[in-house]
Records
---
Amino acid sequence: MDARAQLSLVAHDRQRRGDNRLVLAGVDETGRGCWAGPVVAAAVILPDQWCPAHLNDSKKLSAARREALCGEILASALSWGACAVSPAEIDRVNILQATLRAMARSLHKLDCAPDLVLVDGLQVPDVPWPAEAVVKGDATSACIAAASILAKVFRDRIMTVWDRKYPGYGFAAHKGYGAATHQVALAALGPCRIHRFSYKPVAALDQGQLF
């Protein structure tokens, strides 16, 4: 991401803060489309005009770049919070509601109350602060981009841990998404406890004896 694009991220948030210097919290999630593992959301409040080199939508960054930026964000953020909603809860309430719950819970973990919440996407969680949906917010707003990186890094770490508990599925590689290797493993092994049984590719299989 070039310097001009990064300045655009900062300029967006500066414009939303306005003359009253509103406290902005950016929120994003990852893992909605996965067949296994949690959906994870993060909320971040950044210092005014703070923007590290290469800050961008997490999907456009390498894993190494995300890890490096995650450390910078955690060290410099005024406040941050994150929440993982389990596959079992996703199955109970559906992925949309689980995502909104993860966002709301991450916001409630912030050390200070935001004046305005900027949420990536089309819908906002039920929170006691003003909130706005920002389409493609992770490529528009610095605080949302930072939240997208935290959510992605935290979820990837979770899936790497699950890979050791449930070997054979390749969770450390595909992170629970419907990759070809995941499809093959799922057909051969059947689902495990961290699969989402409300998702058709998983529900179509005989659950058998879970491990």
---
Amino acid sequence: MQNKKKSLRVGVVRFPCSNCDFDTLRFFIKFGHRPEFIWHNENFFSSYDLLVIPGGFAFGDRVYKKATGKYEIDPGVQALRSPIMKAIYDFAKKGRPILGICNGFQILVKAGLLPGKLTQNNSQKFFCDFTICKITGDSFFGDKKMLGKKFKVPVAHGYGKYVVNDKEYKRLQKNKQIFLEYQNFNPNGSVRNVAGVTNKEKTIFGMMPHPERTPDGKFFMRAIETYVKN
């Protein structure tokens, strides 16, 4: 008799204006896991196997000096002011796995939990389409069988250009922190086609493409499951 696959308890952080939260919830439910929402005003949450910060325009990607005044577009900044960030930092300090997708990636970078920075696309326009991505680091959620595989994955962002200088890029390469790269077409102008990076400890992952919107998604989910179980 085969052992029943262990379902993961997944916390999905929601900010005002998040719009990929339900996509993420359904993604994990589809594969038999137990996701639940965490509202951004929480400053503490119980134990989870995985924490996910989904895509979507958290706070509209806007930063207001006054509630009704002028604003600047700076994805992730407003989210850093939410009480939930304390719990996210605590989760990270414990070495627990965190995945940030698109806007979640931007938030993790702004929070200093991932290296580099994300700026406006070279086109200065929002881009939404499928793109081909290649798994370039065997640290991708701990599944070495994923190395070298290519997938057609949706992207949807206006500030997805990943930027590091040459010295920082070489450091990321040496530490095998770049786990995902665009192939054939770079939708935003990211340095060396970088689409996803991890922290040095390989516990926090950020990626611009949306695995939760991939028509199948089983390969990404298997990779996530493998990492979390290790």
---
Amino acid sequence: MEIRPAIAPDLPAIVAIYNASIPSRTATADTEPITVESRQEWFAKHNPSRPLWVLEVDGAIAAWIGLTSFYGGRPAYNATAEVSLYIAPQHQRKGYGSLLVQRMIDHCPSLGITTLLAMYFDHNTASQRLFTSFGFEPMGHLAEIAVLEGTKRGLIIAGKRIGATNL
């Protein structure tokens, strides 16, 4: 098992893992598969201060985690980032999510991040358990803002304060 920075040839696997989460209607508000082409710009925005990492198992990408700038990257929010985590269905419930979240938390001080945000549907109990186990606390609940399969769903915004070495 290896965690490493994502590189351009990883994008098809990253997209495939993301697309695999769509049918469950618990992990993303996308309702149709996305394309590799549609994620090129998103991929390019990841950099050393907003990393995108993949977890490889037996040479294949099993999961990915990344940070994005909060609220469009406005400068006053530079010390805040949103974490995104997706795990291929066949690799879920193996502890990979915890491994990746811990790795990201450990790197936040060197990235100047003092607030890490996780955003997930209020019916996504797996994400809620994972982030709560790392000390993320609810900071907001946007009730019934999404409609999935005809059902209104809410969004939880959970946050974790992290010490930073530089701002």
